[in-house]
Design brief:
Structural class: mainly beta
Largest sheet: 12 strands, antiparallel, barrel
Oligomer: single chain
Mean pLDDT: 86
Helix content: under 10%
Strand content: over 45%
Strand order of the largest sheet: 10-11-12-13-14-15-16-17-18-19-20-21
Order of helices and strands: HEEEEEEEEEEEEEEEEEEEEE
Length: 349
Amino acid sequence: MFRETLGRSTNACRATVFVGCCLAAASAWAGPKVDGLQLKNGDHLTCEIKKLEQGALTISTDPLDTVTVHWAEVTNLTSPREFEVTLQSGERFYGSLSGPMPGALTVTAADGSNLVFQLAEVTGLVPIGASLWSRMDGNIDLGFSFAQANLETHWTLNAATTYRSSRHLITTSYASQLTARQDVADTSRNSFTTSANRLFSNQWFATALVQLQQNGELALDLRSVTGGGAGKTLSQTNHRNIALFLGLVYTHEQFTSQPHDNSAEAALGGQVNFFTSGTKDFQLDNSFVSYYDVTGRGRVRLEVQSAWRHEFWKDVYYAMNGYESFDSDPPENEKKNDASISLSLGWKF
């Protein structure tokens, strides 16, 4: 049953990625070039500022189309348009942009008041009124390996989309692995996760989580997890993002040849992400969630995912993806954990 559901989920994922790619391309259409940008090397550009995120400033210019400039290379920025400006502290301000001096940014509000910040303090820029699609990011990568000795093939697929607004952060991810050998049955692992965060002041947020999992190595036919909680972003800069959350979830499980099981679990999780804002594009994303059964069973589960990416040409990257799943109390005679590492080639949009 889950394999049929998985097939439909895979087709839906492919359709979502295709539509996302088309919409991402549409958002790159030229807009008014009324913004100004100065770089450390002295170059001046007239452009349209799209957004600043994770130390990368996306701009559109007539001769260069849409390009990415590393924030550390920017010394001055001006725009008569209104922007949402996010600082390392998580505070948000709104207004037009000007540069009173190299390395500084003035935000002029609608009432004429001015606030001056150092560029190093600024971690996010989004034009007010920006379209839904310009606030979305995504990536997809695919890996393949083959061993002639036992005719083993190994496929991996990873895809994710993220939507950001002034008050919300919505992330959806899909990860799949399939191993096929001539002498044994195929094994697969699939995970689909959606989380929605409502952002508050002082870096606090409320979160809702929905997850579907299947893992042939652990004899897990289907696990569904739904719940929510609260968290806080501990560090947000142009080089890293660290956040923790605590919540409560309801878990439904079906293992092979086992009765259904339902439980309530406390969830403690977080993200530790690092990225460069210099001259090379590296990104290291780590997420973990630990679950503690609160019904007296004493069971502990842990889910960890890591992805290291290096962009080497026009949004194309290679990646190394790691995964670990641990269960302190699996069904009798079944494994307690499953881990994997894979290499893949991908594209971000």
